[in-house]
């Protein structure tokens, strides 16, 4: 009997060895000739770009959602963050729309549902072939082909169409975009200035992603899908606009994009009819965890006035993307603000892993 127990214990403790791990003949590259191997950098770049784009967009949607919940609890905003992470039913949920659901759009939808605070019933997807999105529909996501309907019902719209489709889409929706709606474009061929012209709105965010010969030499695991990649804290920090590890990524993000997230969040708070004081409270809590050492103030955005109960102007996000502001200078030069931003960025993905560890397999079904 004792021998049997020792054998059972040994069987549990011994980790099976995968004899095929790192076997060259089974690697993706083994089937390529020398000419084709020169193109492997394109595969790495493409994978890193999708991971970076999805991570940043998921974080952005999450902070907008949190800000809307905090607004509902303005009497004690400092106590809200932990409660938000526990509540299943949001009081004022962020309505998310995705136009185009190819490779990037579908990956983004999965990330928003997995790591973000987006409830399936608060997400809408408009695509020419909604019947192919059975997985999302089974989750409760409303999938259809009606861009006007989607834009009119969303607080933030992620544009994931091909460059050849953007002009037709713009003509279709430009007269139906609500003033409070933020358009987040992944269409690389169109600058924010061009998008502003054809969409007739200045509430546009576009990730500033780039690469160079040095960054393409950085290591990157292309074998993982996007959701799995975001379980790695190192990978997540590489995508953070103010992250300390972003120089180690294949895809580089300009810090300017982090600044644009700040202005976009402030605009949303203003659209919720909050005064300057409340807007700043929510912004500092949501993006910087309410740190006391250093906070963004009214004078960082506009000339300081005596009226703290007044409202901020609606900032032109496209114009902000072209000029230097004191906000970017403050965040870039402040160790406290940078560290706080990174912590908030990382926390969203860490909280998901904690919830999954507590709830186990049932979490994927909930």
From TrEMBL:
Keyword tags: Oxidoreductase
| Homology family | Belongs to the pyrroline-5-carboxylate reductase family.
Q: Which GO terms describe its molecular function?
A: pyrroline-5-carboxylate reductase activity
Enumerate the InterPro entries for this protein.
Answer: NAD(P)-bd_dom_sf, P5C_Rdtase_cat_N
Role according to the record: Probable oxidoreductase.
Name used for this protein in its record: NADP-dependent oxidoreductase domain-containing protein 1
Choose any GO biological process term that the UniProt entry carries and state it. Answer: L-proline biosynthetic process
A Pfam family the protein falls into: F420_oxidored
List the lineage, top down: Eukaryota, Metazoa, Spiralia, Lophotrochozoa, Mollusca
Note whether Oxidoreductase occurs among the keywords. Answer: yes
Organism encoding this protein:
Magallana gigas (Pacific oyster)
What superkingdom heads the lineage?
Answer: Eukaryota
Keyword ATP-binding set for record: no
